[in-house]
Design a protein that fits this description.
It comes from Chilo suppressalis (Asiatic rice borer moth). Keywords: Signal. Pfam families: Transferrin (PF00405). This is Transferrin-like domain-containing protein. It is a single chain. The protein is an alpha+beta fold. The chain has four domains: 3-96 and 296-359, Periplasmic binding protein-like II (D-Maltodextrin-Binding Protein, domain 2), CATH 3.40.190.10; 100-293, D-Maltodextrin-Binding Protein, domain 2, CATH 3.40.190; 377-457 and 645-727, D-Maltodextrin-Binding Protein, domain 2 (3-Layer(aba) Sandwich), CATH 3.40.190.10; 460-643, Periplasmic binding protein-like II (D-Maltodextrin-Binding Protein, domain 2, 3-Layer(aba) Sandwich), CATH 3.40.190.10. The strands form six sheets. Strands 5, 6, 7, 8, 9, 10 and 11 form a seven-stranded mixed β-sheet that branches. Strands 18, 19, 20, 21, 22, 23 and 24 form a seven-stranded mixed β-sheet that branches. Helix 15 (385-401) links the parallel strand 14 and strand 15 (407-411). Helix 4 crosses helix 15 (385-401) and helix 23 runs antiparallel to helix 24 (743-764). It is globular. The protein starts with a helix and ends with a helix. The structure holds 2-acetamido-2-deoxy-beta-D-glucopyranose (11 copies).
């Protein structure tokens, strides 16, 4: 809320003084405040990410911001006329035109361009080094040009993008050293390294791919001889056919360490021609030819304010340098440029360029929709315009960085439309509340590709709440027989948690796989909204009349305020007063009901909204005893389920699962919470609110992803898997590879469940 107030305050200031330029500051309150010092002519707009800055600029809420090299490429890819590049931010010691140039160095006798590298020995500086600031796309440029890793040959189904890539490379090059992770998933990485050892043969301990020999013989002034580019060049002159490295290191290496070899090597240019190295060539600040030239990071303004801002900045920062001192001008320099930099302003004599016009002569990435790739794009199902916008930015950011496979975004009306489209092959994945986990598995035949990890306080916690006034008759699960129960939704998490607990307590038959019947016949009445709707079918061949699961539901319409049972509703929207978690609380307040199965994580706010703060409930614990205290603060070991709040779903046993899983690993690594803002090539956050809007694509409570297996070390994720393992055994919603279980298997499973639960209980205690 604080930052929102601040934004408001700044907007007010901005209106009062039309001269004031608003500058984006990414998540730094102190910096933001310091911009207001002493007669400052700028104001700060605190933003969560650089991408948010770009959006605030297009809305007119900000005028100027700083963008990294790859963020500038992202803006270029968006290709709008809303922005202008005012100048580039360069390293004060390297006032060359580009942030870096990636070049291919080959021996002079090389022939036949990129195809001539076939069968050759390839020296690469390594993947995954964040300090290098080479995106996956840059790191792979030589490979795409020579081995054509963007074209698939052979079977792609069921395989990951990195597997297809490495397989192509392995057959194109005879040997290589390509250190670093080939996949964000360590298991896949190790597997690929063992299957394609020739791509590590030129590394130090061949096979480990950990990097190069310590070239103690190499002595390059001012550069560590452990620098990966220097080592790749050393690999080239030892026994290589090509090295793919940064131009500055080529100059350093040959001039300083191996001047004797300058006459023996050439640059391989984009058109396949060679430019021999020479002392003169090596002294040039830019390479005579390169495969990638990277623009510097830049200061970008809105089109309307660009000319005025450029004039002002040139005035505030003479020669593009930090005016220093503790002035607001210097603070502004820290915000937009940073330490050890100097700004090279675009000339104010010619019109300022948009990011795409600015970058296109330097580096151009084909338009996202015009690019063929080896694997088809994975289709992310979105459910609102805001979610779709966030998805589109993530898609473009991932594409700009060269993440494979690509993403596309498909907007649908709601969760069920997404689940249906994924089932029918019209979309591929979605992150969705675990509330719908069972329905997604049974009715839509989906399965998880990842589970989320949650903040500790936002996991889904299901409790059985009994009215305090009836705790004299209800103190164990068996006492619930022939009572009246409230569920937020039929087939939802709370409903399934009850089924599982009731199985565990032996109060409903675990051989009854029609859970509507099992629950419907156990209680004398209940409200389980949706029980009659085809969209909520969890057991295809049910013969049970599920009306019995809706006898306690009530219309919310005033026309039915005094409704009797004749005004029957089972709808699963707010026309049913007792629909949803808050509806179940209201249901429990009804004099005819006894117990409600609800999620407790937001329960206080819900009770308050319903005016029920003082209602008195007591939890019936999973171990079959009443909680010691009255109230909704249910202790963890009393909950009937404690699981993650969301999961990423795709079609069950689908060929795309593996590539989707590693795509999500890459997104987590680049745009998740494990990477610091300063290390991100593009500052966008998949798990965070987007422009102040919460729970888009992922819930705000998400902190990362985890595997949908019992190996995960996130306890709520293990609980979730364990719960479905139990429930799916019966409805045979499990993968078809699992044999249809007979009674013996089921008994064994529930025994296993009990053992696991006992162990978990032990660990928790
Ligand atoms: C280039 O010369 C090296 C060393 O003289 C030799 O090993 C290699 O086969 C030659 N390559 C070509 C393509 O002729
Ligand atoms: C890595 O991928 C393998 C194979 O797809 C999968 O079984 C495993 O759970 C993944 N592990 C991690 C940590 O992502
Ligand atoms: C260079 O590589 C080739 C092919 O792997 C190998 O036969 C040769 O012995 C190597 N030469 C040196 C000097 O390492
Ligand atoms: C470099 O080139 C010179 C002249 O062409 C040649 O004599 C020398 O053997 C070459 N050195 C290497 C290591 O290939
Ligand atoms: C960008 O380039 C296009 C094509 O050359 C030109 O029509 C357009 O005016 C330029 N726009 C900007 C803002 O530089
Ligand atoms: C289910 O039961 C309700 C209420 O008893 C009844 O009105 C309805 O006709 C029954 N539906 C079927 C399909 O038997
Ligand atoms: C509902 O019942 C109350 C009192 O029993 C009565 O005052 C009210 O008018 C009734 N409302 C309707 C819509 O029948
Ligand atoms: C609520 O659900 C009922 C059926 O269950 C449907 O007829 C009605 O149109 C829905 N209302 C809204 C507002 O979605
Ligand atoms: C429950 O919460 C939803 C969403 O906040 C709201 O639309 C609905 O009216 C609430 N239901 C009741 C019974 O208050
Ligand atoms: C409900 O609780 C609040 C705070 O605990 C208290 O101030 C209020 O008097 C109570 N209301 C009733 C009706 O008991
Ligand atoms: C069951 O769990 C509750 C909640 O922690 C605990 O207070 C109680 O002692 C346990 N009862 C038994 C019989 O284990």
């Amino acid at each position: 809320m604080g930052s929102r107030d601040l934004i408001l305050a700044l907007l007010v200031i901005g209106c009062a003084n039309a001269q004031l330029f608003r500058v984006c500051v990414v998540e730094n309150n102190i910096r933001c405040q310091n911009l207001d010092k002493d007669g400052s002519q700028v104001a700060c707009l605190n933003v969560q990410t650089s991408v948010e800055c770009a959006l605030q600029m297009s809305r007119g809420a900000a005028h100027v911001g700083a963008f990294t090299e790859e963020e500038l490429m992202l803006l270029a890819q968006r290709n709008t006329d809303e922005y202008r590049v005012l100048g580039t931010v360069r390293n004060v010691n390297r006032m060359v035109p580009f942030a870096f140039e990636a070049v291919a160095v080959v021996p002079n006798n090389h022939t036949n361009g990129f195809e001539g590298l076939r069968g050759g020995r390839y020296c690469h500086p390594g993947l995954g080094a964040t300090d290098m600031r080479w995106s996956p796309r840059v790191l792979r440029t030589l490979e795409t040009m020579s081995a054509r890793t963007d074209r698939c040959t052979g079977v792609t189904q069921g395989r990951t993008a990195e597997e297809l890539e490495v397989e192509t490379l392995s057959s194109f090059f005879s040997e290589a050293c390509r250190p670093g992770p080939w996949s964000a998933n360590a298991t896949i990485d190790a597997n690929l390294k063992s299957r394609f050892p020739n791509l590590c043969a030129m590394c130090s301990a061949s096979g480990t791919c950990a990097g190069y020999n310590d070239p103690s013989a190499v002595n390059v002034a001012g550069v560590s001889n452990r620098d990966a580019h220097i080592q790749a060049l050393q690999c080239l002159v030892t026994n290589g056919t090509v090295a793919y490295v940064a131009w500055t290191h080529v100059s350093q290496y040959f001039s300083s360490a191996r001047p004797d070899l300058i006459g023996n090597y050439s640059l391989l240019c984009e058109d396949g021609t060679l430019v021999p190295l020479s002392t003169e060539v090596l002294a040039m600040p830019t390479s005579p030819c390169s495969l990638v030239r990277q623009p510097w990071s830049a200061i970008v303004a809105t089109t309307a304010s660009a000319d005025a801002l450029l004039a002002s900045l040139q005035n505030w920062w003479p020669d593009g340098q930090d005016p220093s001192g503790n002035s607001w001008e210097s603070n502004l320099f820290s915000v937009l440029a940073g330490p050890n930099t100097r700004v090279a302003f675009e000339s104010n004599l010619t019109p300022l360029l948009s990011p795409s016009n600015f970058t296109s002569p330097i580096r151009s990435i084909p338009a996202i929709d015009a690019t063929a790739s080896c694997l088809p794009a994975r289709r992310w199902c979105t459910m609102s315009a805001a979610e779709h916008e966030k998805c589109t930015w993530i898609r473009t950011a991932a594409y700009t960085l060269g993440i494979q496979p690509a993403i596309s975004c498909q907007q649908r009306a709601n969760e069920f439309a997404c689940l249906r489209d994924i089932r029918d092959g019209n979309a591929d994945f979605i992150s969705i509340d675990t509330h719908y986990g069972f329905l997604a598995r049974t009715h839509f035949r989906l399965s998880p590709v990842k589970l989320v990890q949650n903040l500790r306080d936002s996991t889904s916690r299901v409790a059985a709440l009994v009215k305090e006034s009836v705790t004299n008759e209800i103190s164990r699960f068996e006492n619930l027989r022939d009572k009246v129960a409230c569920f937020p939704e039929f087939g939802g998490l709370a409903f399934m948690a009850f089924v599982r607990t009731a199985h565990e307590r032996g109060v409903i038959s675990s051989s009854e796989c029609d859970y509507a019947r099992a629950v419907g016949e156990f209680f004398s009445g209940s409200c389980a909204p949706g029980a009659l709707d085809a969209s909520h079918t969890i057991y295809e061949s049910s013969t049970f009349n599920a009306s019995r699961l809706c006898t306690a539901c009530r219309w919310s319409s005033p026309a039915f305020a005094n409704a009797t049972n004749s005004e029957f509703t089972c709808s699963w929207n707010n026309t049913n007063w007792y629909f949803g978690n808050n509806g179940s609380l209201l249901c429990l307040n009804d004099p005819n009901t006894h117990v409600a199965f609800v999620e407790t994580q937001n329960i206080r706010a819900q009770l308050q909204a319903l005016g029920m703060q003082n209602a008195s409930f007591r939890a019936l614990c999973r171990n079959n005893s009443l909680a010691q205290n009255v109230g909704v603060d249910v202790p963890e070991d009393c909950l009937i389920a404690h699981v993650v709040d969301a999961e990423v779903l795709t079609r069950r046993n689908d060929q795309i699962t593996n590539s989707l899983s590693s795509l999500l690993d890459s997104l987590d690594q680049l745009f998740g919470y494990n990477i610091a803002t300063a290390e991100q090539l593009i500052n966008i956050r998949i798990y965070s609110p987007f422009l102040g809007r919460s729970d888009l694509l992922f819930k705000d409570s998400t902190i990362g992803l985890t595997e949908p297996t019992m190996d995960t070390n996130h306890q709520p994720a293990r609980n979730y898997i364990e719960m479905f393992r139990h429930l799916e055994t019966c409805t045979s919603a499990a993968a078809p590879t699992t044999p249809t279980p007979g009674k013996a298997v089921r008994a064994y499973t529930s025994l296993l469940t009990l053992i696991v639960m006992a162990l978990i209980a032990k660990i928790v205690n």
